[in-house]
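Many introductory courses stop at the sequence. We go one step further.
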Amino acid sequence: MLGVRVSRVDASTLRRFITAAVTERRKLTVTFANPDYVRKASKDAALRDLMNGFDLNLADGWGVVLASKIFGRPVPGRMANDDLTDDLFGLPADEGWGVYLFGNAPGIAEAAAANLREWFPGLDVVGTEHGHCADATGEIPPADAERLVAQINEAKPAILHVGLGTPLQQRFVADHRDRLDVPVIITCGAYLEHLAERRDYYPPWVLKLRVGFLYRLAREPRRLWRRYTIELCSYILTVLTHRLRHGRQPA
């Protein structure tokens, strides 16, 4: 999709992949392709290579689902973090796997962990760490990265959630995946903020009408107005232009 590989998997397939990775101690890296990331990656080769270096790029947002249909290779459906809470945490709770929450502002991961333990009795959150670790250049200093890797490895999670924002979270995973002794690593953006608030971040009527972007825009207009107006329109125009120029892809 505009140069970004989007995985055609559903939730049950994801659960099988996660189970196999944990039980066989094989690395599985998962990130998410939303319209904003796809639009940026279509113009930024470095970001595109980062995203395509993950084992799975899940369709985050109805804009990606719709574009997959326009291009002739539809994905099974929307696969955003918020849609997968039962899978990402219910499965570890049932299987006795430890999870580690890394990212977002100080205190957010801890609040998310407290909620998750309440929602999924028996869930073992083996560690938390905030994501405000980048320096003035927007990168994580090497010494801090070494500390984080050691801290995560010491906790021995089966699943690591990394919420640093794109592209920092993808770079962290790409740079350290081979040294992180964690089978499953999943980027999660602002997802921990949602979990720190409530389990069902989007009200049912928002999901039914597929207007999650409008709901987030109404809640955070100052931060998200450009993404969900100018940049969203740019994404739609780019998708339609590509479709007109290249036609439908073979299924």
